[in-house]
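User: Sequence in, structure out. Go.
Assistant: Echoing your sequence, followed by the structure tokens.
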Amino acid sequence: MNIITRTAAVSFLGLASAAGVMIGNAATASAAPTVPSTVTIQTEGTDLFGSVSSSSACEADRKVVVYKQVGARGGGNDINFASDTTDDDGEWNTGNTGTEGKFYAKVKKTNVCKADFSPTITARR
């Protein structure tokens, strides 16, 4: 191998190596959340509250969205009704909404924590 061929071969291997590192990092960066989470919803009159249960890294500061169910659940008509952020113990509370109906909660996913939906509950005065 002459000097030009050897330089080209070394350059090619260096570029191939760098491309492999970039592809590997991209795969890691887009990895799906892996820590399971469970969100609950309860009612006392028209107060809506619940908790997120998971590993400690996935309980605090999680956004919980409460949906008011319209017709069949997940039919596309459900209303984004309220939201709250969990406290250090994973608890959330919308306070007294004054609204009766069927509701369910969703905890949003993060880079580490999976999303979850609660069962539907009925709030009555």
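User: And one key feature?
Assistant: The first helix runs from residue 3 to 29.
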